Design the sequence.
């Protein structure tokens, strides 16, 4: 992103309302299967020599494997960036590497576990089955129930 006019003082801010594509190489070794274009809307300001402030709202959708079914599912996410991005300026180029800034924030949005499964009945086998969090709380067939009670007393 060219920011020469902002750095020269010709404009007070640069409005951003664009979609950016994160290269597949960035998320090749992550849980992300695919990443839609990232919608970015906000402003870039240069209040003084040491600060280049980026204040934007971002949204997109990443495709992940469902934690239960292992089927690909879409995971929509949004985040805000409000930070000094002077470190991302490319020296003597008057450009800002916004893709790197976006990627650093997208990494924080990747969930550890995500599932759209609501019916767990089909996920079972010989001597096992997947249960919901609600079932887990009311399950009274726990062989360690007495031990858990003793631990909770301490």
Sequence:
């Amino acid at each position: 992103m060219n920011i020469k006019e902002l750095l020269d003082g010709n404009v007070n801010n640069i409005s951003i309302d664009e979609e950016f594509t994160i290269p597949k190489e960035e998320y090749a070794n992550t849980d992300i299967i695919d990443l839609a274009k990232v919608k970015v809307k906000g402003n870039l300001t240069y209040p003084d020599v040491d600060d280049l402030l980026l204040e934007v709202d971002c949204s997109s959708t990443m495709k992940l494997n469902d934690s239960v079914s292992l089927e690909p599912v879409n995971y929509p996410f949004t985040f805000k960036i409000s930070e000094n991005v002077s470190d991302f300026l490319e020296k003597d180029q008057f450009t800002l590497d916004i893709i790197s800034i976006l990627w650093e924030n997208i990494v924080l949005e990747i969930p550890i576990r995500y599932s759209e499964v609501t019916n767990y009945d089909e996920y079972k086998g010989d001597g096992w089955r997947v249960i919901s969090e609600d079932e887990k709380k009311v399950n009274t067939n726990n062989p360690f129930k007495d031990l858990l009670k003793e631990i909770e007393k301490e």
Summary: Residues 98-107 form the longest helix (10 residues). Residues 3 and 153 are 62 Å apart (CA to CA).
